[in-house]
Amino acid sequence: MPATRTTRTHENTEATASAASGPALVRGLAAACHPLPAAAVTLFAAALTAAAGYGPARAAVTVGAVAAGQLSVGWCNDRADLRRDLATGRADKPLVAGTVPAAAVTWAAAGALLLCVTLSPACGLLAGAAHLVGVAAAWAYNLRLKSTAVSWLPYALAFGLLPAFVTLGLPGAPWPPPWLTTAAALLGAGAHFANVLPDIEDDLATGVVGLPQRLGRRVSAALAGLLVLGSTATLVVGPPGPVTPYGWTLLAATTTALLLAARHPAGRLPFLATMAVAGADVILLVVELRP
Asked: What is the pTM of this model?
């Protein structure tokens, strides 16, 4: 075994060195940034700017700040998890597979964070502060809080502040309606539970004991579904006026999708179902908030 481990380490080192330039490096960095959730959150921000009536220039700065923040969080996560991912043989991770150097991910995370810190205040000081608090919460999760009983809190805080980042950049700096903040926070907490489900055993083996790991897969899967369903229900019934047919359809579809996903808590289906529900929620949000 020791000889095999040494050989694999040497092979990974050579692969990393060969991947340290050109398109291979770009592909490795793209895979290490957690592209699906990063893209989903960025598209959510874009939908919020469209619903709020932002002009192209202001929308570009706002969405750019969110994209930079998400990239920094994704790269920070993979870099912070490298030792644990090596211990559990996570060959699906670019850093473990040796397709991108650890130093490149470190510098990419720092550069994206610097860009986020630069762009966020350009949207307004209060708006920028709200966004940077959310990004700081995500970094705190990566570096420490994921192994605590409040592992859900950074997700809820970061998602809950995202609508505020958009609305506080409007003239008069209004806060978003409470139902929108609540729905976003519930979605964030639900995404946390759903995202952790496939990795609970590996997490426990490497000392990561957040709330989902403490509760176990079955309870965490149920909580993920209830939180995401609560988010959709809040979006449907929260705004003033009667519920639209699309709203009722969305609520029924969400319930069905989450029930199906709950039958396979060990795989990626609960997380993918959460992303699909979030996309449908965004459509509803754009329709409801359009000025």
From this structure: 0.85
